[in-house]
């Protein structure tokens, strides 16, 4: 059977390549499917059976959309139409009667347009002829302003804004966007403990999906208690998620739960005459393959990488979500880290843009993203990075107005000093950390604000909006200047945490200091000062969330402290593994013991044991050990600076828009293979390095570099 | 049967009064049901079987709403919950599990809140306890910002805006807003002409509803051709609306058409073995009773009043619509006239606010209302009038932000002279009139702009926004000043039509001139000048639409020219009656002949024969003959200035928020009964007038007035 399937897959591949330019796909107003799907997903959260929706504004898709494209056909052609919604179809402005499933487009130049109304789903079309096919080249608007005056003169529509249609991978006319579901596959428990009236199942590791009670029959009640830990599954009164069924079946049937859950352990309890043959699960996942990889001489690091990759997969779903057990909402700060990890593991751009679009929603802006000021800024910075990694200008061109209106919201909320502090309804998050002050002008927020303004300047340039590019650049420069005049303390040799009523506090925290390093906002002297006085200073309050550990370790990597970071990764992530973690957690405090680890938010099992922000080693190992990063958008140029960080050897791949960069590095040998752009390999060597395939240039004492050409492989002998 | 029904009606009245304070009703986010219903209605338009949706942006309801109210209960009470959407319910922030249908609210002070998600319908709730009932006193928001930080501290929600819940008359928990339908009743044709394979039905007058083919059976096709005229129903190739059915029935059944149509004549054609027993219709209507009335000594005027009232009823549906045959969209300029007529016939405020809300939609503003600049201004002015007639401050308090954002849109589009001219995508409508220039700065638009700014100043004052009240007043004064400096021509003794490139044209049209009169923007000299040089000047292009005839005749009435207007009404509306009109038309040109009258927009039957703007005699006769109008909001004070306009006697009622004002006036006798506020009766008399019930004051030579107290009746003997 396997051979046959492969043959079909190959055939489909050839077919779709052969007709690549004419592949029809479902299209919609860009961003609208993402918003609609975000609403659906985020409103599936329950907490012990209570519906728990988000506390911020949810937007809707535009319900009335005009789609059109101009075609020039050598031959007339038959065109099939599939539409989500009530619609009309026109050729050159002349409408067909009714709701035709097939039309003929005559030879010659013709405009084909469809107008669709749909309130519950996203107006979407799938148009399939030989040449007349729906794809991202169609133009769409939510207000065509197509009026005709009393003389029969049509409006010029010059006030109408047309965007390129949005699409994803809905290439089957029978699978419209509204019936989108993630993939599933059946998995069995690795261990089952049956008792009278109960079954305790262990699926071997953290997982996610629908429980299936197979061969269910009889009369009585079934309650399912889910646990990320064994303790949680057994704690019937306090576990976070449950399912409850009233059964009255005379025949056996399989019963699949309606909602997905996160768990490793499942405690099924039943009474009356209920019997269950067996319990399995439908594992639910987004089918996206790993392109990045990492292996090294340390097996614990390899295990950490694998568990981090699995953690990221579990949290990469309809969108990049925060954690699979509890929230299952889209949080901008959490998602931002997933974008970065994604560039080193999956390189799945649709997951990034889906998430960005769902987070942004529509105008008017009435609060910060997720109500959190920092989360608004991560949204901007996420676009900055997205452009660096992918070079996707179209995304920026389409959504620049939404970037502007969100930035206008921020600008309108500056205080008299031109800085941002929490106003009514704003949440200043920064981190989950006891006693962290959110008062006044927090330095960390100004720093993210500056980078957001730089993002706006970059995007304004991309869309040829020169006046605003200049404005945003000036605003960014102003905020950066204030960052140092207001917060740099020569006494503390660091940026202080905040100013309250115009007076800087003497409180030093790690947040602004570590970001300032990898944002490259500091001269070398200040970088070293911060390293000594903040990052490596045990007097400064420690970070206990993997969320901020991500940035702390990134800052240390950016300062070349990989060896220190290696130890930290082994201690911190290794510490979770030692406690039996099969995915990485929302928070980890080595000082805690046993089931204490599972508590958070004042709830016994409140903590998420599978949180996206726990997967940061993927990013650190790819960017700062394999050392690959773009130096121009879309990896047109990029750098490779391998760092062993105390390991004997490292070996892996980093994906780019055009192929993967392979890197192997030991203390004596470096092997690289280039991707689509032009790379620069840079490394230190105590001896003169040698390569048969390239000319190696001496940059400064002991520092060398060489050019890595598109797709070529190189071997270098050197001595660390 | 009639007595029984009356008894039940009486019982319901007593019951609902007895428990008035605890009457539960379906509630939602204010304005959202109106937007949702507007989308539904406006997307039912078809043109010979082709779906024809609006060409402007349609908005959506908020899909996630938090509802709450604080209660203080002497006893615990059982509360039933009915919800449209997925929901949770909390008491004092503590959620119930699942989706309960009934909860118990304990005695004491408690906050009851529900949070509801719904994408296809409007999130709505119906809560029914003894005291805990859903009504317009509940508070709602689309973003509760109810977050809890790591210390368990809840957000203060001070950034959350709470509005009062919206409601209408959905008092039955089993009749949620989403299943709203207008009422129907079955009517028969007054004349049926059967032929082989066809039936031609005449329903006696213009009507609206669903055709019902009774006892339909056999196999074949049925096509229904609808006609507002006999000619149209017979013109199978060019009539505007049709229905087509493929029949294959072995048993007889009744078949009711899916969509309503407007018609007087219906031409049913069928083939094959199809047979039909009979054809009836389900007349569809909004159940709202006439409160205003008018009778006079002229039977033609009485007939005109009745047909105008019927025309307004036919166009008063889910919303005030333009015409029942073709558009069935909500047009702000058309609706504005319906608001005014409504105050003199139905006094149905929900119809006004439904229409205003559906027209306004949501932010952001991306075009003028209906894309038409003048129609944006009519929206503002409609609120000005609505407040004068009803005194409804809550509407203004709830929607002032939407007024501001629409005005900001207008202000942002001013040219360097501070005036408005058509920009890309703007439609400058004014009137359907051949050769009417829309170029440059049109005086008519500036005039409406000035009144809109005055509306904003009024509303800013109502919501205690003093700084903006001052700003809007200043802006209004500026535009009014410019109106006279830029457009008043001493040569023409009139406002000229427009300025192009800063130069006034020498073109005089009626539009700005007639509005300036009843907006009271002119001194007496200019009023008289305009009367002579514009209104009564046959050289100035004539108006051929009832739409602008409305304002032309209003201006003449405001100048005391009722006798002239009586003649005009008899000629113009009487002219339509003489042609057999059973409702008033979209346009009437006495110069046309026969079926020429039915053509418009280059289509043989393009004209609507039942257009709301044709019903203006209702307004003119109520406001300028019976002479009743508010002089303070909600008729707290009002004036009664009866004008016979050449008639022997007039007799009628004008509704107010608190009772009706009755007026009878002949050349010798005036009888009035006051409503809730304080009226002032003002009249001319050649002799000293006498009343037993009041003291009559002499105002100036031959002009008298007297006070009409709340609910009291007066008789005055005088001599015209």
Features:
Jelly Rolls, disordered N terminus, Bacterial alpha-L-rhamnosidase (chains A, B), Rhamnosid-like_N_bacteroidetes (chains A, B), Glycosyltransferase, 15 helices, signal (chains A, B)
Task: Explain what you see.
- The structure is a homodimer of 720-residue chains.
- By secondary structure, chain A is α+β, with helices and mostly antiparallel strands.
- Chain A folds into four domains: 23-179, Galactose-binding domain-like (Jelly Rolls, Sandwich); 183-285, Jelly Rolls (Sandwich), CATH 2.60.120; 300-361 and 383-623, Glycosyltransferase (Alpha/alpha barrel), CATH 1.50.10; 633-717, Maltose phosphorylase, domain 3, CATH 2.60.420.
- Helix content of chain A is 30%, strand content 27%.
- In chain A, α13 (546-558) runs antiparallel to α14.
- Chain A is globular, with a radius of gyration of 28 Å.
- Chains A and B meet through α2, β2 and β5 of A and α2, β2 and β5 of B.
